[in-house]
Amino acid sequence: MLSKRKEKILKQMATNNSVIVTDKLEEALNSCLASFPDDKLFLVVDDKSDRFCLPLICDTLRIEKFKKIVIPSGEENKILSSVEKIWLFLSKRGADRKSLVVNLGGGMVTDLGSFAASTFKRGVQYVNIPTTMLAQVDASVGGKTGFNFNGLKNEIGVINQPLQVIIDTRFLETLDHENFISGYAEMIKHGLIHSQDHLTELMNFDLLKPDYSLLQGMISRSVLIKNYFVAKDPTEKNIRKALNFGHTVGHAFESYSLKSANPLLHGHAVAYGMITELYLSRLRSGFPDGNMHFLSKWIMSIYGKFRITTDDYAELYELMGHDKKNEGRRINFTLIKSVGEVEINKDCTKNQIFEALDYFRELNNI
Ligand code: GLY
What is the third-level CATH fold of 245-366? Predict the structure, then answer.
């Protein structure tokens, strides 16, 4: 748990108040809808959220007025043709600049729906109702929108803040374990970059028997940390890059695993990326050796093994070169000096990166 003082500071920093964590979802949504006409309400869902999550907002006033589009679920559909479907739907059903698009679903739906809304007629307002852990603690918050392109994650997109993000942890009660821990990785990242208190509460939480009332408070605190960095630097010129800890290597693992029979979930890839980048943090920022081993083993105990060989290094290195944080030929990392002390724009040599991959590979071969 964060100390009262730290929580107060975070709340003051996150001045935009654009995120609500609630178990009164309908109430929060109704107040968002108040200033939009009945014929200007649009809903984007995928086939999963349509079936399993929409019933939870069915008591929302005027829900029957929404014009709804259902897109196919799955990361493989986070592509331009899905965006085109949403644009076409908005265009044919009379959406204009006074419309509101509500995105209900996991990160795929919130990223695509918010991109389609942000670019349609140069921008329509949107609300995200994230239904997975990953979307609640990360993807739906902070205004990053977009889709995958040319084999690269989120290669095309814009940053545009939502009118509101409404988080209801009741959605998480039906989430399977792997998707649950996938989102949890982003919470661990928030602890590592900002707060030992948050990290400690995450370590003490029983992931096999989640206590959902406890989880709601933890998600609130995690989102406050995310929003703190977003509010300080919405367009990621500077300190928002803190949120990329674990992601330079994580995205490379994720893209690389797409070729395998069992692609990694995003959060698992980030968890493995955090282990590798903890090693780089030790090399480049003086992160304490003992804590690096302790945290790496704890993360492995949650996510299990991901085996790589030295033959994979060249391609992983090449994939890291595509990271959006790079400037020119340098591969830039967000590293940590200690828990809660971030250093951004730290470039590492190829040798250092390979040494970190050695650490990760050896940990997985024990
Ligand atoms: N997922 C990192 C960010 O929103 O900046």
Answer: Dehydroquinate synthase-like, alpha domain (1.20.1090)
Kindly state if the Cβ of 243 falls inside 6 Å of ligand 1.
Answer: yes
DSSP string, 151-181: TEEEEEEEE---SEEEE-GGGGGG--HHHHH
Number of C-alpha atoms within 13 angstroms, CB side, residue 222? Answer: 29
pLDDT < 70 stretches in the chain = 1-17, 323-329
Report which DSSP code applies to 327.
B
Which of 128, 236, 270 best tests ligand 1's pocket when mutated (most atoms within 8 Å of CB)? 236
Q: What is the pTM of this model?
A: 0.91
Best mutation site among 110, 134, 138, 225 for ligand 1, i.e. most ligand atoms within 8 A of its Cβ?
A: 138
Residue ranges of the chain assigned to CATH 3.40.50.1970: 4-177
